[in-house]
Design a protein that fits this description.
Helix content of chain A: 55-70%
Number of domains of chain A: 2
Pfam family, one (chains A, B): PadR
CATH architecture of the largest domain in chain A: Orthogonal Bundle
Protein name (chains A, B): Helix-turn-helix transcriptional regulator
Oligomer: homodimer
Largest interface: A-B, 60 and 60 residues
InterPro entries (chains A, B): Tscrpt_reg_PadR_C, Tscrpt_reg_PadR_N, WH-like_DNA-bd_sf, WH_DNA-bd_sf
Organism (chains A, B): Saccharopolyspora erythraea (Streptomyces erythraeus)
CATH class of the largest domain in chain A: Mainly Alpha
Structural class of chain A: mainly alpha
DNA sequence: CGGCTCATGTAAAGAGTTACATGATTTG
DNA sequence: CAAATCATGTAACTCTTTACATGAGCCG
Protein backbone atom coordinates (compact mmCIF):
# COMPACT_ATOMS: atom_id res chain seq x y z
CA UNK A 1 0.00 0.00 0.00
CA UNK A 2 2.96 2.35 0.37
CA UNK A 3 3.08 3.20 -3.33
CA UNK A 4 -0.48 4.38 -3.22
CA UNK A 5 0.27 6.86 -0.43
CA UNK A 6 3.57 7.89 -1.94
CA UNK A 7 1.65 8.96 -5.03
CA UNK A 8 -0.99 10.76 -3.00
CA UNK A 9 1.75 12.51 -1.05
CA UNK A 10 3.59 13.70 -4.12
CA UNK A 11 0.33 14.91 -5.66
CA UNK A 12 -0.36 16.78 -2.42
CA UNK A 13 2.86 18.70 -3.01
CA UNK A 14 1.64 19.69 -6.46
CA UNK A 15 -0.59 18.34 -9.22
CA UNK A 16 1.43 16.43 -11.79
CA UNK A 17 1.40 13.66 -14.37
CA UNK A 18 2.47 10.04 -14.21
CA UNK A 19 5.54 11.03 -16.13
CA UNK A 20 6.46 13.69 -13.57
CA UNK A 21 5.87 11.27 -10.71
CA UNK A 22 8.08 8.67 -12.35
CA UNK A 23 10.90 11.18 -12.49
CA UNK A 24 10.44 12.17 -8.92
CA UNK A 25 10.87 8.59 -7.83
CA UNK A 26 13.89 8.25 -10.05
CA UNK A 27 15.57 11.48 -8.95
CA UNK A 28 15.02 11.62 -5.23
CA UNK A 29 12.78 9.05 -3.56
CA UNK A 30 14.59 6.08 -5.08
CA UNK A 31 17.83 6.67 -3.24
CA UNK A 32 16.45 7.23 0.20
CA UNK A 33 13.02 5.80 0.62
CA UNK A 34 11.02 4.13 -2.13
CA UNK A 35 11.15 3.23 -5.77
CA UNK A 36 8.59 2.56 -8.49
CA UNK A 37 8.73 2.32 -12.28
CA UNK A 38 6.31 3.84 -14.70
CA UNK A 39 4.88 0.37 -15.32
CA UNK A 40 3.69 0.31 -11.74
CA UNK A 41 2.81 3.98 -11.46
CA UNK A 42 0.41 4.33 -14.38
CA UNK A 43 -1.86 1.45 -13.39
CA UNK A 44 -1.89 2.66 -9.79
CA UNK A 45 -2.88 6.16 -10.88
CA UNK A 46 -5.78 4.67 -12.81
CA UNK A 47 -6.85 2.75 -9.72
CA UNK A 48 -6.58 5.85 -7.55
CA UNK A 49 -8.70 7.76 -10.04
CA UNK A 50 -11.24 4.93 -10.15
CA UNK A 51 -11.36 5.03 -6.35
CA UNK A 52 -11.99 8.77 -6.47
CA UNK A 53 -8.84 9.73 -4.56
CA UNK A 54 -7.32 11.68 -7.42
CA UNK A 55 -8.71 13.30 -10.56
CA UNK A 56 -7.45 14.62 -13.87
CA UNK A 57 -7.29 18.39 -13.70
CA UNK A 58 -5.59 19.10 -16.99
CA UNK A 59 -4.95 17.39 -20.31
CA UNK A 60 -1.89 18.41 -22.27
CA UNK A 61 0.07 17.51 -25.35
CA UNK A 62 0.90 13.86 -26.14
CA UNK A 63 -1.92 12.55 -23.96
CA UNK A 64 -0.44 14.04 -20.82
CA UNK A 65 -2.83 13.98 -17.87
CA UNK A 66 -2.17 16.07 -14.80
CA UNK A 67 -3.70 14.64 -11.63
CA UNK A 68 -4.59 16.34 -8.38
CA UNK A 69 -5.88 15.06 -5.04
CA UNK A 70 -9.61 15.05 -4.47
CA UNK A 71 -11.00 15.80 -1.03
CA UNK A 72 -11.28 12.03 -0.42
CA UNK A 73 -7.65 11.61 -1.48
CA UNK A 74 -6.52 14.30 0.91
CA UNK A 75 -8.36 12.56 3.74
CA UNK A 76 -6.91 9.15 2.88
CA UNK A 77 -3.39 10.59 2.83
CA UNK A 78 -3.94 12.41 6.08
CA UNK A 79 -5.26 9.28 7.79
CA UNK A 80 -2.27 7.29 6.64
CA UNK A 81 0.24 9.92 7.75
CA UNK A 82 -1.31 10.11 11.22
CA UNK A 83 -1.34 6.35 11.76
CA UNK A 84 2.09 4.81 12.18
CA UNK A 85 0.83 1.51 13.53
CA UNK A 86 1.44 -0.54 10.38
CA UNK A 87 4.90 0.51 9.29
CA UNK A 88 6.43 -1.92 6.81
CA UNK A 89 9.81 -3.35 7.75
CA UNK A 90 12.87 -1.79 6.15
CA UNK A 91 14.44 -3.51 3.17
CA UNK A 92 18.04 -2.42 2.98
CA UNK A 93 20.51 -4.57 1.11
CA UNK A 94 23.39 -2.41 2.27
CA UNK A 95 22.73 -3.27 5.90
CA UNK A 96 22.15 -6.89 4.96
CA UNK A 97 25.63 -6.95 3.49
CA UNK A 98 27.06 -5.44 6.66
CA UNK A 99 25.35 -8.18 8.64
CA UNK A 100 27.05 -10.84 6.58
CA UNK A 101 30.38 -9.13 6.13
CA UNK A 102 32.14 -11.12 8.85
CA UNK A 103 32.29 -13.85 6.22
CA UNK A 104 35.04 -11.88 4.47
CA UNK A 105 38.43 -11.59 5.97
CA UNK A 106 39.52 -8.10 6.97
CA UNK A 107 41.92 -7.68 4.08
CA UNK A 108 39.01 -8.18 1.69
CA UNK A 109 36.56 -6.06 3.64
CA UNK A 110 38.85 -3.07 4.02
CA UNK A 111 38.81 -1.90 0.39
CA UNK A 112 35.03 -2.26 0.35
CA UNK A 113 34.77 -0.08 3.43
CA UNK A 114 36.96 2.56 1.82
CA UNK A 115 34.58 2.63 -1.15
CA UNK A 116 31.58 3.00 1.15
CA UNK A 117 33.37 5.77 3.02
CA UNK A 118 33.98 7.71 -0.19
CA UNK A 119 30.45 7.24 -1.35
CA UNK A 120 29.03 8.38 1.99
CA UNK A 121 31.13 11.54 1.93
CA UNK A 122 29.81 12.38 -1.51
CA UNK A 123 26.24 11.82 -0.36
CA UNK A 124 26.74 14.15 2.60
CA UNK A 125 28.08 16.89 0.32
CA UNK A 126 25.27 16.48 -2.17
CA UNK A 127 22.54 16.37 0.45
CA UNK A 128 23.94 19.33 2.34
CA UNK A 129 23.88 21.33 -0.86
CA UNK A 130 20.31 20.31 -1.61
CA UNK A 131 19.07 21.10 1.89
CA UNK A 132 20.91 24.41 1.81
CA UNK A 133 19.36 25.27 -1.56
CA UNK A 134 15.87 24.35 -0.33
CA UNK A 135 16.33 26.46 2.80
CA UNK A 136 17.04 29.25 0.34
CA UNK A 137 16.60 32.99 0.44
CA UNK A 138 13.07 33.36 1.78
CA UNK A 139 13.64 31.03 4.72
CA UNK A 140 10.90 28.69 3.52
CA UNK A 141 11.88 25.06 3.54
CA UNK A 142 10.02 23.22 0.88
CA UNK A 143 8.48 19.78 0.70
CA UNK A 144 10.42 16.99 2.34
CA UNK A 145 12.55 19.19 4.55
CA UNK A 146 12.36 16.75 7.49
CA UNK A 147 13.55 13.94 5.25
CA UNK A 148 16.37 16.07 3.86
CA UNK A 149 17.77 16.89 7.25
CA UNK A 150 17.32 13.27 8.30
CA UNK A 151 19.28 12.12 5.25
CA UNK A 152 22.17 14.45 5.94
CA UNK A 153 22.45 13.23 9.50
CA UNK A 154 22.19 9.57 8.53
CA UNK A 155 24.97 9.90 5.99
CA UNK A 156 27.15 11.86 8.38
CA UNK A 157 26.74 9.02 10.87
CA UNK A 158 27.65 6.62 8.06
CA UNK A 159 30.87 8.50 7.36
CA UNK A 160 31.82 8.33 11.03
CA UNK A 161 30.91 4.67 11.19
CA UNK A 162 33.08 3.95 8.15
CA UNK A 163 36.04 5.71 9.78
CA UNK A 164 35.55 3.64 12.89
CA UNK A 165 35.16 0.41 10.92
CA UNK A 166 38.26 1.06 8.84
CA UNK A 167 40.45 1.63 11.86
CA UNK A 168 38.91 -1.42 13.50
CA UNK A 169 39.67 -3.64 10.52
CA UNK A 170 43.08 -2.11 9.87
CA UNK A 171 44.17 -3.48 13.23
CA UNK A 172 43.45 -6.96 11.91
CA UNK A 173 45.44 -6.30 8.71
CA UNK A 174 48.88 -5.27 9.88
CA UNK A 175 50.43 -4.88 6.40
CA UNK A 176 49.05 -1.38 5.86
CA UNK A 177 51.17 1.67 5.05
CA UNK A 178 53.62 -0.13 2.80
CA UNK A 179 52.54 -0.13 -0.82
CA UNK A 180 54.47 -3.37 -1.09
CA UNK A 181 52.19 -6.34 -1.73
CA UNK A 182 54.88 -9.01 -2.03
CA UNK A 183 54.70 -12.20 0.12
CA UNK B 1 18.27 -12.42 -5.24
CA UNK B 2 18.99 -10.88 -1.84
CA UNK B 3 17.07 -13.54 0.05
CA UNK B 4 19.22 -16.22 -1.49
CA UNK B 5 22.42 -14.59 -0.23
CA UNK B 6 20.91 -13.69 3.11
CA UNK B 7 20.30 -17.40 3.64
CA UNK B 8 23.77 -18.34 2.48
CA UNK B 9 25.22 -15.71 4.78
CA UNK B 10 23.34 -16.91 7.81
CA UNK B 11 24.32 -20.50 7.06
CA UNK B 12 27.93 -19.34 6.80
CA UNK B 13 27.65 -18.17 10.39
CA UNK B 14 26.49 -21.61 11.43
CA UNK B 15 24.58 -24.57 10.00
CA UNK B 16 20.92 -24.38 10.86
CA UNK B 17 17.41 -25.33 9.83
CA UNK B 18 14.72 -23.38 7.99
CA UNK B 19 13.00 -22.91 11.30
CA UNK B 20 16.12 -21.39 12.86
CA UNK B 21 16.60 -19.11 9.86
CA UNK B 22 13.00 -17.95 10.06
CA UNK B 23 13.55 -16.92 13.66
CA UNK B 24 16.73 -15.11 12.84
CA UNK B 25 14.90 -12.99 10.31
CA UNK B 26 12.14 -12.37 12.76
CA UNK B 27 14.39 -11.48 15.68
CA UNK B 28 17.12 -9.39 14.17
CA UNK B 29 17.31 -8.97 10.38
CA UNK B 30 13.68 -7.89 10.07
CA UNK B 31 14.10 -4.65 11.98
CA UNK B 32 17.23 -3.42 10.29
CA UNK B 33 17.80 -4.99 6.92
CA UNK B 34 15.61 -7.69 5.44
CA UNK B 35 12.59 -9.80 6.14
CA UNK B 36 11.29 -13.13 4.92
CA UNK B 37 8.59 -15.52 6.10
CA UNK B 38 8.89 -19.25 6.42
CA UNK B 39 6.70 -19.62 3.33
CA UNK B 40 9.43 -17.96 1.30
CA UNK B 41 12.38 -19.46 3.17
CA UNK B 42 11.55 -23.17 2.83
CA UNK B 43 11.12 -23.16 -0.94
CA UNK B 44 14.27 -21.10 -1.35
CA UNK B 45 16.25 -23.56 0.77
CA UNK B 46 15.04 -26.36 -1.46
CA UNK B 47 16.18 -24.41 -4.51
CA UNK B 48 19.56 -23.69 -2.96
CA UNK B 49 19.96 -27.37 -2.19
CA UNK B 50 18.93 -28.31 -5.73
CA UNK B 51 21.53 -25.86 -7.03
CA UNK B 52 24.15 -27.48 -4.83
CA UNK B 53 24.89 -24.36 -2.79
CA UNK B 54 23.77 -25.87 0.50
CA UNK B 55 23.31 -29.40 1.75
CA UNK B 56 21.55 -31.21 4.59
CA UNK B 57 24.13 -32.11 7.20
CA UNK B 58 21.82 -33.43 9.90
CA UNK B 59 18.29 -34.72 10.27
CA UNK B 60 16.60 -34.30 13.61
CA UNK B 61 13.27 -34.82 15.31
CA UNK B 62 10.01 -33.68 13.62
CA UNK B 63 11.57 -33.69 10.18
CA UNK B 64 14.09 -31.02 11.11
CA UNK B 65 16.84 -30.63 8.51
CA UNK B 66 20.01 -28.74 9.31
CA UNK B 67 21.68 -27.18 6.28
CA UNK B 68 25.27 -26.08 5.78
CA UNK B 69 27.06 -24.32 2.93
CA UNK B 70 28.77 -26.44 0.32
CA UNK B 71 32.02 -25.25 -1.24
CA UNK B 72 30.02 -23.90 -4.19
CA UNK B 73 27.74 -22.06 -1.77
CA UNK B 74 30.68 -20.48 -0.01
CA UNK B 75 32.03 -19.27 -3.34
CA UNK B 76 28.69 -17.86 -4.43
CA UNK B 77 28.35 -15.97 -1.17
CA UNK B 78 31.88 -14.68 -1.36
CA UNK B 79 31.39 -13.46 -4.93
CA UNK B 80 28.23 -11.62 -3.98
CA UNK B 81 29.81 -9.99 -0.93
CA UNK B 82 32.74 -8.73 -2.96
CA UNK B 83 30.62 -7.25 -5.74
CA UNK B 84 28.64 -4.18 -4.71
CA UNK B 85 27.76 -3.10 -8.23
CA UNK B 86 24.13 -4.18 -8.18
CA UNK B 87 22.85 -2.92 -4.85
CA UNK B 88 19.05 -2.84 -4.68
CA UNK B 89 17.50 0.49 -3.75
CA UNK B 90 16.39 0.95 -0.15
CA UNK B 91 12.74 0.52 0.67
CA UNK B 92 12.06 2.48 3.82
CA UNK B 93 8.53 3.48 4.64
CA UNK B 94 9.69 5.54 7.58
CA UNK B 95 11.74 7.84 5.36
CA UNK B 96 8.89 7.92 2.85
CA UNK B 97 6.65 9.24 5.58
CA UNK B 98 9.19 11.91 6.46
CA UNK B 99 9.25 12.95 2.83
CA UNK B 100 5.51 13.47 2.84
CA UNK B 101 5.18 14.87 6.31
CA UNK B 102 4.96 18.49 5.22
CA UNK B 103 1.38 17.63 4.34
CA UNK B 104 0.57 17.66 8.07
CA UNK B 105 0.50 20.86 9.98
CA UNK B 106 3.10 21.21 12.71
CA UNK B 107 0.63 20.71 15.55
CA UNK B 108 -0.20 17.30 14.11
CA UNK B 109 3.37 16.34 13.28
CA UNK B 110 4.81 17.25 16.67
CA UNK B 111 3.24 14.38 18.66
CA UNK B 112 4.33 11.95 15.97
CA UNK B 113 7.89 13.22 16.24
CA UNK B 114 7.80 12.77 19.99
CA UNK B 115 6.78 9.15 19.48
CA UNK B 116 9.60 8.61 17.01
CA UNK B 117 12.03 10.23 19.42
CA UNK B 118 10.99 7.88 22.24
CA UNK B 119 11.20 4.87 19.99
CA UNK B 120 14.65 5.84 18.72
CA UNK B 121 15.97 6.24 22.25
CA UNK B 122 14.76 2.75 23.12
CA UNK B 123 16.42 1.35 20.00
CA UNK B 124 19.72 2.97 20.93
CA UNK B 125 19.58 1.49 24.41
CA UNK B 126 18.70 -1.96 23.14
CA UNK B 127 21.33 -1.96 20.40
CA UNK B 128 24.04 -0.64 22.70
CA UNK B 129 23.28 -3.46 25.10
CA UNK B 130 23.40 -6.06 22.33
CA UNK B 131 26.64 -4.74 20.87
CA UNK B 132 28.15 -4.57 24.34
CA UNK B 133 27.10 -8.15 25.04
CA UNK B 134 28.53 -9.36 21.74
CA UNK B 135 31.81 -7.56 22.42
CA UNK B 136 31.84 -9.67 25.55
CA UNK B 137 34.62 -10.88 27.83
CA UNK B 138 37.07 -12.42 25.33
CA UNK B 139 37.17 -9.39 23.06
CA UNK B 140 35.76 -11.40 20.17
CA UNK B 141 32.99 -9.64 18.35
CA UNK B 142 30.67 -12.12 16.78
CA UNK B 143 28.79 -12.23 13.51
CA UNK B 144 27.31 -8.97 12.32
CA UNK B 145 29.48 -6.69 14.43
CA UNK B 146 29.81 -4.10 11.67
CA UNK B 147 26.04 -3.98 11.29
CA UNK B 148 25.56 -3.68 15.05
CA UNK B 149 27.81 -0.68 15.36
CA UNK B 150 26.23 0.82 12.27
CA UNK B 151 22.77 0.41 13.78
CA UNK B 152 23.75 2.10 17.02
CA UNK B 153 25.15 5.08 15.17
CA UNK B 154 22.18 5.37 12.85
CA UNK B 155 19.73 5.39 15.74
CA UNK B 156 21.82 7.88 17.70
CA UNK B 157 21.69 10.16 14.68
CA UNK B 158 17.94 9.61 14.57
CA UNK B 159 17.57 10.69 18.19
CA UNK B 160 19.50 13.87 17.47
CA UNK B 161 17.48 14.48 14.34
CA UNK B 162 14.25 14.07 16.30
CA UNK B 163 15.42 16.62 18.86
CA UNK B 164 16.25 19.06 16.10
CA UNK B 165 12.95 18.43 14.31
CA UNK B 166 10.91 18.88 17.47
CA UNK B 167 12.46 22.23 18.28
CA UNK B 168 12.04 23.24 14.65
CA UNK B 169 8.35 22.40 14.64
CA UNK B 170 7.72 23.76 18.11
CA UNK B 171 8.57 27.20 16.77
CA UNK B 172 5.67 26.83 14.37
CA UNK B 173 3.30 25.79 17.18
CA UNK B 174 3.49 28.61 19.72
CA UNK B 175 0.94 27.16 22.18
CA UNK B 176 3.41 24.81 23.83
CA UNK B 177 4.23 24.76 27.54
CA UNK B 178 0.71 25.39 28.78
CA UNK B 179 -1.16 22.14 29.38
CA UNK B 180 -4.29 24.17 28.77
CA UNK B 181 -6.02 23.19 25.54
CA UNK B 182 -9.08 25.44 25.87
CA UNK B 183 -9.83 27.91 23.07
C1' DC C 1 -2.98 -36.71 27.31
C1' DG C 2 -3.92 -31.84 26.08
C1' DG C 3 -1.84 -27.71 24.81
C1' DC C 4 2.20 -25.52 23.13
C1' DT C 5 6.02 -25.17 20.32
C1' DC C 6 8.67 -27.15 16.68
C1' DA C 7 8.94 -27.94 11.86
C1' DT C 8 7.79 -28.01 7.13
C1' DG C 9 4.98 -27.32 3.36
C1' DT C 10 1.62 -25.28 -0.59
C1' DA C 11 -1.75 -22.06 -2.95
C1' DA C 12 -3.56 -17.73 -4.10
C1' DA C 13 -3.16 -12.98 -4.28
C1' DG C 14 -0.60 -8.72 -4.30
C1' DA C 15 3.58 -5.98 -5.22
C1' DG C 16 7.46 -5.03 -8.13
C1' DT C 17 10.68 -5.71 -12.26
C1' DT C 18 11.74 -6.44 -16.99
C1' DA C 19 10.55 -6.35 -21.54
C1' DC C 20 7.67 -5.19 -25.22
C1' DA C 21 4.89 -1.63 -27.55
C1' DT C 22 3.24 2.66 -29.48
C1' DG C 23 2.73 7.28 -30.84
C1' DA C 24 3.03 12.50 -30.23
C1' DT C 25 5.81 16.64 -29.79
C1' DT C 26 9.92 19.16 -29.60
C1' DT C 27 14.54 20.45 -31.06
C1' DG C 28 18.37 21.00 -33.93
C1' DC D 1 13.03 15.69 -41.19
C1' DA D 2 15.69 12.85 -37.94
C1' DA D 3 16.73 12.10 -33.29
C1' DA D 4 15.61 12.75 -28.69
C1' DT D 5 12.37 13.16 -25.31
C1' DC D 6 7.70 13.10 -23.63
C1' DA D 7 3.97 10.24 -22.41
C1' DT D 8 1.30 6.24 -21.57
C1' DG D 9 0.29 1.55 -21.64
C1' DT D 10 0.34 -3.99 -21.18
C1' DA D 11 2.24 -8.82 -20.47
C1' DA D 12 5.11 -12.07 -18.36
C1' DC D 13 7.79 -13.12 -14.75
C1' DT D 14 9.71 -12.85 -10.08
C1' DC D 15 9.37 -11.77 -5.36
C1' DT D 16 6.63 -11.29 -1.14
C1' DT D 17 2.58 -11.75 1.84
C1' DT D 18 -1.40 -14.01 3.62
C1' DA D 19 -3.84 -17.93 4.42
C1' DC D 20 -4.49 -22.69 4.62
C1' DA D 21 -2.62 -27.25 6.08
C1' DT D 22 -0.43 -30.97 8.58
C1' DG D 23 1.94 -33.61 11.88
C1' DA D 24 5.68 -34.68 15.35
C1' DG D 25 7.68 -34.05 19.87
C1' DC D 26 7.83 -31.84 24.44
C1' DC D 27 6.04 -30.30 28.94
C1' DG D 28 3.02 -30.12 32.71
Amino acid sequence: MSLRYALLGLLADEPQSGYDLTQRFERSLKRYAWHARHSQIYPELNKLAADGLIAVVEEGARGRRTYALTEAGREALHGWLMDWSSLQPVRNEFVLRLFLMSVLDPSEALPLLRGIHEHAKEEVAELEARVEAAGGPDGEWGFGRLAGEYGVRQYRAMVEWAEWAESELARAVPDEGSGDTST
